[in-house]
Specification:
Strand content: under 5%
Domain SCD: 305-390
Number of strands: 0
Radius of gyration: 42 Å
Subcellular location: Chromosome; Nucleus; Chromosome, Centromere
Number of helices: 53
Mean pLDDT: 77
Low-confidence stretches: 1-93, 455-463, 849-853, 1056-1235
Biased composition (Basic residues): 54-65, 72-84
GO molecular function: chromatin binding
Protein name: Cohesin subunit SA
Length: 1235
């Protein structure tokens, strides 16, 4: 087929000549990729290769030499664009571009205006169209008439590329802002309208369309991203419009052929020769037009699509896939072939989600048409595995589209998806993402449920589903859930099927009839599952939100959905109120089935009991509830029953009196039984198992109801206290009795507190409650030493809760009258709580597992229980109930148990810092001291730093150091204090007299070295001096430095870290200052012999440095220093940069070269970062792990804050300092200019 692009009229364009040299700072340096993945790389090995290898030739090979069109004077002079900007006011006038951008008029009239101008002056009109596309790329250049006459397309593009000074990465298709938001839509609409309006005239002219296609093809091969992106979009939209024109031509040809055949088949007397000739001429004309359109499409496909579908820019690849799908759907006779389908199949492997998404949507459009599926068999067999695997795509929206595509394949291509394919999709119904789970639920519906029971349309109407079909649905649902064994909770399966099978799941009549049917032939597991399905569907219809843990993107229900929800709630309530007592009566013996049935009351509209006069069913329900409570002692059943009764005990209901009476009857029964059984226990010396079980069950029932109802008037505190006192004194009370008795006493105290908090309580009542609470704490304290771990854990949980309730926090909020109730535990109780934590929470995995048969879910439950215990202890710390120093018992396990409790300990550390930063720092040090002392006592001082436990301690110290965050100035005094206390501890014990060994705690210095990166350069030097003074007290000096001292001194090396250049946020001096009083100040500081290591109240100003090293320093936001600062402060800050040379340390450590810090004077720096690339990678975790832990916006350090003075304990080497200062001043650039 001969294309007009091949016959002539096109300007020559060499693809290789388009790649021009582009400076990297002005243009996108991305090269067009020859393949983003293996699936996009080559045509070799494809099933479709035999049909399309010849189609992959370069577009340039088919272009004829350039033909210069006849030039006419343009209607408008050339307009030079001065640059691309996001502001419309800065753009030059361009009627076409501005009209499309602003969408001020409809596109048809805009295109008509351009056509009129083109008819008046073809060159001017065509240049206007070309410059519109150039302008749409964001290019500041224009194509003039002279360029159009003399230059080839490749030369024009090269010229435009040279003028494309891309100030930013934005161009009209990607620029932000409201003015550009709708540009892409308007741009595409313009291209579509242009082809539509030209389809009967200029489209076959040869000059405008062919030259436009040639230009777009050249631009799409450019290295400039804006050119490539915009021209590809224009070319693909142009191709889409041409496909529509070709489709219309094909229809016209078919009509013409039918008319010709009809006319020719007439008898000779009726045949009109003129009409036959006219139809032949028309067919010839349509054939020519069809060939020209196909030539244009062929040029666009080979010149643009074949190269751009694997472009490096994912937006371009997505455009190609989207438009290819559109061509296949609209003109399937030409494009729905394997030679085109292969591009979509290859691109299914694209690494970018948007491209994969466009491929799946394109395929959905094809598979949704049953007439087209026969032509997709080869493609499906080749790429089915990939489509099935995309169900597990890491992007949820892609996975959702993949499932929906498979649903279409399942519906329209029978037998294609095997059982193995379907089984890989079934587990997705339990996915956490609701959209994905819902799509998988629809697939499950069409695969398993629809073929078996769905009714067919009869006479155009769908008859109502029969009860038998509904039963079939629920039997299939039960079989899938039970036999698949994919999940333990049917609520997630119900939610997944809700959108596609909600009407079936809301058929509560069929559900309840199945459950109440005598000969239902359902097993025990099936009955439990069916009850769970019933409860889940009722909850879903009543509340309208998915189960816990399933994420949904919906923010709320629409008005229509709320109306449906309200109607469903009324409907289910009316149906289930009469049947709930029957269900409870049938399954009353099974605790696993009764508990969810009692939960149904949570989703009822309880007013219907009154409005529908259903009180008799309420009476039946209360009777069944009492029977269930008396019959069962399972916590889940008792909790559900107590909560159901709590819902009915609302004084606003007219039936409240009836329910309250039933509650009193039930509690009277339980209380009387408890009193009777308790007397038997207290009086007899031995109880058999049945008596113990009966008493324990009664206590459990009372405890469950005491949690939801006020049972104070039954006075259960005294008998329970007597029971617990006997248990503590004699140990003769069984464990199963003690546990609920503790809970009963706990609830009794809380209900009494609730009464006293709401009214003016007398002092006598408050003191009585205080006495009860103290007595209860003593009982729990005694239980902490019980031999049974369950009693210990229960006592600890109740203690931690009640101590927080009666902590000083209870008087906050205008409740000062409760001050007599405030209680703080004694030291012995605090110690026992901490000991319990060590014995029950921080235990090794080997200590947790009693045997090898323990199941995983049991270990998870135990872990949750331990986390609950730890959280209770941490709350006691943060609420001030326990001494904060006890937090060291928690912090010292931060690293070792990070996987189990890291989040809890980290939050505790953060809250403790907010309470008292200084105290929290001391606690961190105390944690390290305790661990070190334990290790020292166990292994001795020899080789301590080589033990694995010591290495773990170093990791813990590093994690503690990271918790200080990047704000060095705020934490400066804390880190220095930590180092000082650590040095004191390391030298607190001296070696025995006559021994040449090192102090036993000296290895602690290696732990301190992990905190050294948090120090400023000046503080490091002065800490070295302080360490020397402390080492001088050690009587035996070694012949060579101890390794721990060497390690610590190396961490304090004066070699400056860029992080320590200067205190963050401290205002550097902007003026040069004289050294007039420096000598006097040095004399004063040299005479200071105090032992304390303190920070100066004014952080030191860094000394002058050469500009040659300025690029190595982090640039920080500085403020101007006050003009009134004294010269002595500046001199003092210079002295802080000096180093004291130790007479005790080895030469290699004592004579460290002086490296000044700070920035040159007169420079206003900007804050960029405190961390440099050469810092330890683990230190960079500070931002994520604990960078915010030590940020206190209310506690900023300031020069006026009283602080510690580092000079008080330092004997400076005056000569070294003076020489260093002279050396710095002499090399400073300001001084060099003056000298």
């Amino acid at each position: 087929m001969s294309s007009p692009l091949q016959r002539g009229g096109l300007r020559s364009l060499s693809a290789s000549s388009l790649y021009v040299s582009v400076p990297s700072d002005d243009r996108d340096s991305d090269q067009t990729s020859e393949g983003d993945s293996d699936s996009l790389s080559a045509d070799e090995g494809s099933d479709f290769e035999d049909s399309s290898r010849r189609n992959m030739k370069k577009r340039a090979a088919k272009r004829p030499p350039k033909t210069t069109p006849v030039a006419k004077h343009p209607k408008k002079g050339p307009r030079m664009v001065r640059g691309h900007s996001q502001k419309e006011s800065e753009l030059p006038a361009s009627d076409l571009f501005d009209a499309v951008k602003g969408a001020k008029s409809d596109m048809q009239s805009l295109v008509d205006e351009w056509l009129e101008s083109y008819k008046q002056n073809q060159d001017s009109g065509f240049l206007e169209l070309i410059n519109f596309f150039i302008r749409s790329c964001g290019c500041k250049g224009t194509v003039t008439l002279e360029m159009f006459k003399k230059l080839s397309n490749s030369e024009i593009i090269w010229h435009l590329t040279e003028q494309f000074n891309e100030d930013s990465g934005d161009y009209p298709l990607t620029a932000p802002g409201p003015s550009w938001k709708k540009f892409q839509g308007s741009f595409c609409e313009f291209v579509r309208t242009l082809v539509y309006q030209c389809q009967y005239s200029l489209l076959y002219d040869g000059f405008p369309m062919d030259n436009l296609i040639s230009l777009l093809t050249g631009l799409s091969d450019s290295q400039v991203r804006a050119f490539r992106h915009t021209s590809t979009l224009a070319a693909m939209k142009l191709m889409t419009s041409l496909v529509r024109v070709a489709l219309q031509l094909s229809l016209h040809r078919d009509n013409n052929q039918r008319q010709y055949e009809a006319e020719r088949n007439k008898v000779p007397g009726q045949r009109a020769p003129e009409r036959l000739e006219s139809l032949l001429e028309k067919r010839k004309e349509l054939q020519e037009h069809q060939e020209e359109i196909e030539g244009m499409m062929n040029a666009l496909f080979r010149g643009v699509f074949v190269h751009r579908y694997r472009d490096v820019l994912p937006e371009i690849r997505a455009i190609c896939m989207e438009e290819l799908g559109s061509w296949m759907q609209s003109y399937s006779s030409s494009f729905l072939t394997d030679s085109y389908l292969k591009y979509i199949g290859w691109t299914l492997h694209d690494k970018h989600r948007e491209v994969r998404l466009k491929c799946l949507k394109a395929l959905k459009g094809l598979y949704s048409n049953r007439d087209l599926t026969a032509r997709l068999e080869l493609f499906t067999s080749r790429f089915k595995d990939r489509m099935v695997s995309m169900v597990m795509d890491r992007e949820y929206d892609v996975a959702v589209e993949a499932v929906r595509l498979l649903i279409l394949i399942l519906k329209n291509m029978e037998g294609v998806l095997t059982d193995a394919d379907c089984e890989s999709i079934y587990p997705v119904v339990y996915a956490s993402n609701r959209a994905l789970a819902s799509a998988a639920g629809e697939f499950l519906y069409w695969k398993l449920f629809y073929p078996e029971y769905e009714t067919r349309s009869v006479g155009g109407r769908e008859r109502r589903r029969s009860p038998q079909t509904q039963r079939t649905f629920f039997h299939l649902l039960l079989s899938f859930f039970v036999e698949s064994e994919l999940h333990d909770h049917a609520a997630y399966l119900v939610d997944s099927l809700w959108d596609c099978a909600g009407s079936q799941l809301k058929d509560w009549e069929s559900l309840t009839s199945l459950l109440l049917e005598k000969d239902q032939n359902l097993g025990d597991v099936q009955e439990s599952t069916l009850i769970e399905i019933l409860v889940s569907s009722v909850r879903q219809a009543s509340e309208g939100h998915p189960p816990v843990g399933r994420v949904t993107g919906k923010k709320g229900l629409t008005l229509k959905e709320r109306k449906i929800q309200a109607d469903d709630k009324v409907k289910l309530t009316e149906h289930l109120i009469p049947l709930l007592p029957q269900l409870l009566a049938k399954f009353s013996a099974d605790a696993e089935k009764v508990a969810p049935l009692l939960q149904l009351l949570n989703y009822f509209d309880l007013n219907i009991y009154c409005t529908r006069r259903l009180e008799k069913h309420l009476e039946l329900f209360l009777q069944q509830l009492q029977e269930v409570v008396v019959k069962h002692a399972d916590p889940a059943v008792l909790e559900a029953g107590a909560h159901a009764l709590y819902l009915l005990c609302n004084p606003e209901f007219t039936f409240f009196g009836r329910v309250d009476f039933a509650r009193s009857q039930l509690v009277d029964l339980l209380a009387d039984r408890f009193q009777q059984e308790l007397e038997e226990l207290l009086q007899s010396s031995f109880l058999d198992e049945d008596e113990v079980y009966s008493l324990a069950a009664t206590l459990k029932r009372l405890s469950a109801f005491y949690n939801a109802h006020d049972l104070t008037r039954w006075e259960l505190y005294e008998p329970c206290y007597r029971l617990l006192r006997k248990a503590v004194d004699t140990g003769a009370v069984p464990r199963q009795v003690i546990l609920p008795a503790l809970t009963l006493v706990y609830f009794s105290i809380l209900w009494t507190l609730a009464h006293l908090s709401g009214s003016g309580a007398s002092q006598k009542q408050l003191l009585s409650l205080k006495g009860r609470m103290v007595t209860f704490c003593e009982l729990c304290q005694s239980c902490l030493s019980d031999v049974d771990p369950e009693i210990q854990e229960q006592a600890f949980v109740l203690l931690s809760d009640i101590l927080i309730i009666f902590s000083p926090q209870m008087i906050v909020g205008g409740r000062d009258f409760l001050r007599p109730l405030v209680f703080l535990p004694e030291a012995t109780l605090q110690s026992e709580l901490a000991s319990f934590l060590m014995d029950h929470v921080f235990i090794q995995p080997g200590e947790m597992v009693k045997g090898h048969s323990q199941e995983d879910h049991l270990q998870i439950e135990q872990l949750h229980q331990r986390r609950r215990l730890l959280a209770g202890f941490c709350k006691l710390l943060l609420f001030g109930v326990l001494e904060m120093d006890a937090a060291s018992d928690v912090f010292k396990h931060y690293n070792k148990f990070y996987n189990d409790y890291g989040d809890i300990i980290k939050e505790t550390l953060t809250r403790a810092r907010q309470i008292d930063r200084s105290h929290c720092s001391r606690i961190l040090l105390l944690s390290l001291k305790q661990l070190y002392t334990e290790l020292l006592q166990e292994h001795g001082p020899q080789g301590l730093n080589e033990l694995p436990a010591f290495i773990e301690m170093r990791d813990l110290a590093r994690r503690f150091a990271l918790s200080f965050g990047p704000h060095q100035l705020q934490n400066r005094d804390l880190v220095v204090m930590l180092h000082k206390e650590g040095i004191k501890f390391s030298l607190s014990e001296l070696p025995p007299a006559g021994s040449s060994g090192q102090p036993p705690n000296l290895a602690f210095l290696e732990l301190l070295s992990e905190f050294s990166p948090r120090l400023f350069h000046q503080d490091k030097q002065l800490l070295l001096s302080y360490l020397e003074k402390c080492l001088q007290r050690v009587p035996q000096a070694p012949s060579h430095p101890w390794s721990s001292v060497t390690t610590y001194c190396h961490s304090l090396s004066p070699v400056e870290n860029p992080t320590e250049a200067s205190p963050q946020g401290y205002p550097h001096s902007k003026k040069r200052r004289i050294e007039g009083s420096s000598r006097q100040h040095r004399e004063d500081s040299a005479s200071s012999q105090e032992e304390s290591l303190q920070l100066n109240s004014v952080p030191p100003t860094p000394t002058l440095t050469s500009t040659a090293v300025k690029t190595r320093q982090p640039m920080e936001g500085l403020q101007e220093m006050e003009e009134g600062s004294s010269e002595s402060e500046f001199t003092q800050s210079q002295l802080l940069s000096g180093t004291q040379r130790s007479r005790f340390l080895s030469p290699q450590h004592s004579q460290t070269p002086f490296n000044p810090s700070g920035a040159s004077l007169g420079n206003q720096l900007t804050r960029l970062s405190l961390l440099e690339e050469d810092e330890d990678k683990e230190e960079l975790e500070t931002q994520n792990e604990s960078g915010e832990e030590w940020q206190d916006p209310d506690k900023h350090s300031s020069p006026s804050e009283p602080g510690l003075d580092l000079l008080d304990s330092t004997e400076l080497n005056i000569e070294i300092v003076e020489k260093s200062l002279q050396l710095i001043v002499s090399y400073h650039p300001l001084n060099s200019k003056q000298h």
